[in-house]
Every structure is written in structure tokens, then in C-alpha cells.
Amino acid sequence: MSDDILERDSASENGDFNDIQLGMIDEEIVYPEEFLPTYESINEKTILTKVQQVEYNNRPDSLFFNDGQRRIDYILVYEDEDKQAFDKRHVFQRRKRRREYFEASLMKMGIELEAVPSVVDDKVIFVKVHMPWDVLCTYAEVLHIKVPIKPNDIPRRPSLGRFFKCITKHFYPDEDLIRKEPEFFTAPFEKRRAKDFLSINRDLFFTPSMRSRMAFYILSRAPYEVRGNIRKFGITKLLDGGVYKAAYPLHDSRFNVKSEEEDCPNERLLLFKEWAHPKNFYKMQPLDLIRKYFGEKIGIYFAWLGFYTMMLIVAAVVGLGCFLYGYHNQETSTWSKEVCDPEIGGQIVMCPQCDLCKYWMLNSTCDTSKTLCVFDHFGTLVFAVFMSVWVTLFLEFWKRYQAELEYDWDTVEFLEQEEPPRPEYEAKCIYERKNPITGVKEKVPYTTCGRCVRVSIGIGTVLFWIFLILASIVAIIVYRLAVFLTLSVKLRDSTELKNLEPIKEYVTPQMATSVTASIISFVVIMILNMLYERVAIWITDFELPRTMRDYENSLTMKMFLFQFVNYYSSCFYIAFVKGKAVGHPGAPVYLLGKYRNEECDPGGCLIELTTQLSIIMGGKAIWNNIQEILIPWLKNRYSYFCSGKVIEKERPRWEQDYKLQDLSKLGLFYEYLEMVIQFGFVTLFVASFPLAPVLALINNMFEIRVDAWKFTTQFRRMTPEKAQDIGAWQPILQGVAILAVATNAMIIAFTSDMIPRLVYYWSFSVYPYGDNVDHTMQGYINSSLSLFNINDFHNNSLGITADEPRNISVCRYRDYRFPPGHPRQYEHNMLYWHVIAAKMAFIIVVEHIVYFTKFILSYVIPDVPYAVKEQIKREKYLTQMLLHETNLKLVSKRLKSSLDEETSEAKGHEEHEL
Questions:
Q1: Nearest 5 degrees, angle CA 866-CA 867-CA 873?
Q2: Which of 193, 551, 582, 697 is geometrically suited to a Cys-Cys bond with 312, CB 3.0 to 4.6 A?
Q3: Furthest-apart CA pair in the chain: how many Å?
Q4: Could you report the per-residue pLDDT of 126-166, keeping only the tens digit for each?
Q5: For the chain, what are the domain ranges?
Q6: Following CA atoms 171, 173, 175, 179 in sequence, which dihedral angle do they give, to the nearest 10 degrees?
Q7: How far, in Å, are 87, 378, 742, 745, 857 from residue 848 at the CA level?
Q8: SS3 state at 610
Q9: For residues 43 and 64, what is the distance between their CA atoms, to the nearest angstrom?
Q10: Contacts for 45 with CB less than 8 Å, ≥ 6 apart
């Protein structure tokens, strides 16, 4: 047993966990009265009552108690304290008392338990948990679980897909293995009218996922220790304190072998074969079966991921076409030809880009200019506008699809008040306040002032880490400046480094600096992510959100805000800061008073932004796949290797699952975060990298199967949870979509060289031929480079040691300034202001057009399909009719009873008078 667990257990002993006064518990935790244990009833005699101990019955695939009748709804695992080390016996005995009290509480609440030792290690005990029918009915009503009342009698409208069924059927799971789920109208379960629901078969009425969800609800609220007027409760704290080693629902079978038990659904095997297996990467997902097996929360995640991947197909095709168009035209670009032409670019001497750099010829950037033509062309503008419309269609169509899933999965009326408070919240409820809605006094864990203090501490911590990210960005900028200066000097002095001579032609200082800085930036990003993750969880725990949904939403905003700055800040720097404030060769701008600010390549910073995006996106995808595939697989292999020679098929079902990895309660949160960050890369900077949707599509096709394989084979079965939608991620996606319009317009205006080229093409490149006027790009390079007299370099400038070239008197630099000798020499000329005006006009026009289009699409496309609205109304009508008829029967029964009593009394009175 590790020391940290012992320390946590000691902390629990001192009252640091789950302390709450007995007088307030009934107001905060919903316990059905018939199953609420009194503390007098759980006395020492009850605590000493042992859970029934049985021996393993050699049925490894069984999902039942030894009697074969009672289904296992949950498994608890602990180590026998009587077989632990003697020197820590007092700690283990305290754990034993808590466990026995907890199990006695469960049995008093109607739960049935059965314990069986491990076949590998006799110190490990597995406690099977079974919920009888009466307990299921009670807690199904508490949790508002919906069950069928009538088959869906509204006919489905025929779709156009039926004409292509002979083709599309190959892209769906095998219908003979995974049959379509029947459709029912449903209503929240009520125990008093259980006979009015469609089926009353006690064995199949509640699905295993429903039973597991109800079992976890009870386990999270059962007490395990009472001291005076303070009691402690919840399986979560027992797991943290080491009282139990694990708690989980069972998989129904092995993922690769069919169960030998009769009537076993083998849903895990079906999911592996038709969903998680790599050979089915092109098939649609069996979402109904995923939801049935894992619950709505995991089902909605895979539904969103699959829908996002399907929409990416369209974006990837258009993006690939844009890339191929640029690749095809890179050799015919006029301005690229001028850069590479020995008579034009070969005759232009460029000014040094740093204080220790040398003069260089423009045609030395020929390869970079050709590469830039692949990404910087008119098709990029069209693609950026298309992606702005695409992201709107994606979000609107997802709302419609989500509405269909909400109805099909019975989450339309899943309201916040239906979600129970977190046990951690309930344990800290020591203050009273009046509920502004109900007017009833309720318990809360903090006052208004305390709430402000907690929120302020959280905001301050998040801001501190954001400033830390910005500091790391500044450090990387300093690195870029220092490395660029060093490489420029080293590559200049070929006599010092003759071994670099072969690569000088292909590797420029700009390229080497950009690649190495991008790699370092990625490493820093990953390190900061790992550190901040723990900080964000600590802050959210400190804030004490009421429900699990509130907890995840709060953590979501913190993590996304941090990772937004962490992942995108370097891209924003390259796109909108680098090369924008460099001055001119005679009066450069210095950073920190020492380093001369970076300049962009003569073709602009777009190619560097593309490099940064490709490295971060590719590195992030590779790193995440290593984490999601290799690490769980190695842990499971090591666990089986250390468990002895007992082969898997001889182990019982609960012990096979115990050796799997436990998915944390935030496991799904990280999956969403990974995809939303990718969504930002695809939309925010797509104008600089049209291949981003292609890379995202390839990654997501693997991501779906990797997640499916991981959940199905490498992790224990998660406790099913209900969810209506994707939560706080929906407004985050909408915010990213709105921001993407502005960022792409600004990338085209300020990072790309497209607007200056268009201004030159339409305004300054007119050549008359007879009666016709021809616009051409010839002479663009010459017009985009300004002149500088090398005699104007000041000797007292910081570190100017560049050798004077021979036979030239001027050099060129990227800007629009008056030439030397002009009355306003080195000031911005009229062309500069024309270009600035064109850039601002472009941003305003494009943003207004795209935002107007987004508004029209959002208004035209309804969030809920008309057919779903009809079904929801029909279901509400049937529910009301059922309630009305039930109430009429109850009233009629009571009236009949009253009349019978009156008649009996009247007869009795008459007989008495006679």
C-alpha cells in the first residue's frame, strides 16, 4: 500500500473528507424514505454482519450471483485487511470498519451483496452488487428514467437514400449482427403506475446501463462513517482513501470471444467487430448500440465526432483542390518567375536582415517563392470564404442532428434539476440560504462572499498561467532572433564551416530558424499542458460546482482558454506580429534593446505560418495517438504479466475487467478538448494551410477507431451517464466559428501578399495595346521593394558590421517607401496607403458578406427538424393521456371505495335500527 494513500486515509480520519451535519442531510440528498437507513438501525451488531462469502463457481462468463438469478449491477474490489502487513494493522482495521459500515448501509437500503475471492490473489475480494426490483423502481423514479409506453406509430418519411441502398448498405454495420433498435414513445417511470408501461418483464425492463447508473447513484450517497452529528458518505471517497481498490460495472463478455452463457447479449463483442476493428474504418458507427452499452454521454461524443468527420470530407475535397490548383500554377506565376529570373531577381541586391548578416541576392529565395505560390493564390481566398460558410453549415446541421438524437435517446427534457448534486458539493453544505425560485431554505457550501473569493482565486490563477504562456512566446521569439543571427553569420563564413557548403543552397537561415522554433514551441506547449491540467482540476475542485455538468463546464472553459492561448499564440504572432514593425535598414526596430526585430521573407510570412501549423497539428496527432494506444496497451500487458499463470478464459468476468485500465471521470473531456483544438486549427488558419482539413480528416478516421478500440478493449466499462448535448463545447465551437471569419480575412489581408498584388494588378500595371488595356503582373517585384542607400547605414548603429558590396550603391528591402534623395526619403509613399486602404476594405467587405451569409443560413435552417417536433408533440400527448387515464382510474377507485363504505355504513345503520 503506497504512503500517499495512507496519508489520504489519515486525512479522511481527521475529517477532511465529506463532513456534514446529520441535521441537514435529508434536505440535500434525495433518499427514498423506504430505503433510507436510520443511524440507530446501523449499530455495531449490523456492522459486524458479514456479506455473504461464496466460492468461485468456475463460470468465467457469468454476469450473475452464484445462484444464477440475480444480475450483477456493479463490482466493488478491496484487499482483505486481515492479510495485510502487521505494522500498519491499525490503518487497515479502520478501513475495514468503514467498509463494513458502508456495506451495511447498502444492505439496509435494499441492496444485495455477494463476495468472492480472486482466483489469482486470495487477498483481493470482489463484492457483487445487485439491485432488486423494488429498489430499481424506486430509484428509476428518482432519476427520471424514461421507459417505453407505446410503439412509435408515426411513419418515417421516405428518404432519397433508399434509391442508393444497394450501394450505401456496404457502409453500414452488418444488419444481421446489429439490428435496428425499435422505436417507442417513452415517459418517466413512476412506480405507482408501473403496469401502464409497455413491458413489465422484470429481467429486461431496465437495461444493464440503466441499472448500473442507478447503482452508482446509491453507491455515491451511502454513508460509511458516523461521528456524533457528522457523517461521511460516498464510494468516491472510499476509493480515494484506499478502502476499495476499484468500483465499476461489468462488460458483458470478452471483446474477441462470444460468451458461453445463455441469453448473453455479447454487445461488447458486436461493438468490437463492427465498430472498433480497424477493418471497418469506412463504416458508419452503430450509435444506438453505443448509447445502449456505454450511455448517452459517450454516445453523443461519438455521434458528434462522426458527424464532424463526415462534414470534413467536403472541406477536405475543396482544400485538396485548392492545393492542387496552386501546385499546378506555381511554375506559371509571374511574380515567382521574376524572383527566380537571373536577369531580374539575380540582379536585385537585398539589404541585410540582421546586424551581422550579409547582403544577399533576391533569387536565392527562388524555391521559397515557388513553394509560397502553392498556398498564396486567388483560390486561397475562395477557399477561406468557403470554409466560413462550411463551419456555419456544420454547426447548424449538427444542431438538427443533435435534436434527432435527443428525441431518439430520451434526453429532450433532461433538465439541470434532474441531475443530482455531486457528493463533494453535498459534503460541504454547511450554510443556509433561501432559494429564490422555490422560496424554501436550502443548504449551500459557501456564502456569497465565499463564492466570490473562490471565483477570484480561480480567475487569478488562470490569468497567471496565461501570462506564463506569453512569457514563453517571448522567450521563443528571442530564440528565433538569436538563432537567425547566428546561422546568418555561420552560413556567411563558409571558410569556417565548409561542411555546411552543400546545404547552403537549400537551407536558408529563415527556414532553419522557423523549423527549429516550431519544434521547440510544440515541446513547450505539451509541457505547459501537462502542468496546467493539474492546476485547472485543482481550481475547479476548489470552486465546488453543484452538479457534474457544472463541474465539466467550468473545467472546460478553463482548459480551453488556456490551450487556446497555448496552441494558437505562436500562430497569431507569425500571422499578425512578425515583420509588421521592423522599420527600415537605416533605422531598424530592436526587441529588448538588443535583438533586431524579425523580418518576413520577401514573399511574406505565410509559408512560415504554414510550417508552424503543419508541425503543431502533426506533432499533436502523433503524440495523442501514442498516449491513447501505446500507454493503455502496455499497462494492460504488464498487469496480465504480473497476475500469474491463470489464463484469461479461466478468470471470472469481474476479474478480467479489474485488470483493465480505469477511465477517469474526465476521460471524455480530454477527447472533446483534443478535437475542439483541432477544429480551431482547421478553421482559424485555413487561409494559410488548405491541407488542414485533409490532415484533420485522416486523423479523425483513425481517432474514431482508436477511441472505440480503447473503450471497448483496454478500459473498464464506464458508468453510463445521461447527457443532452455536448455541453459547453457547443458555444465554444460557435465562438471559434465567428472568430475564424476575422482571422482568415486578416491572414489574407496582412499575412498573405494577395492584396498588394491585386492593388498592383488593377491600379499600377496598365499597358495599352492599341485600343485595348492589358493588366499584367510584370514588374510587381520591383514595385514591392524599396531602395536604400548603403551609405546611409550609420556607423554608430548597434552592431552594424556588414561588409560593403562592390560596385553597388543601393540595396532593396520589402516595403513601400520613398527612395533616397527624395524630400521625404524613407517615409511611406502613396502606394503604401493604397495597399493599407485596400486591406481594410477587404476585411470589412469579406466579414460583412460572410457574417450576413451565416445569419441567413442560421435563420433558414431550423434547429429542430419538423418530423422530430411532431414526434415530441405526439409523445407529450400520449404521456398526458396516460397520466389522465391513470388519475381517472385512481379517482374512480377511490369514489367506488367511498360509495361502498357509505353503502355498508347505511346498511349497517338500517340493520341496527331493525
A1: 90
A2: 697
A3: 144
A4: 999 999 999 998 898 888 888 888 787 777 666 665 666 67
A5: 1-132+207-250, 272-756
A6: -130
A7: 74, 20, 10, 11, 14
A8: helix
A9: 30
A10: none
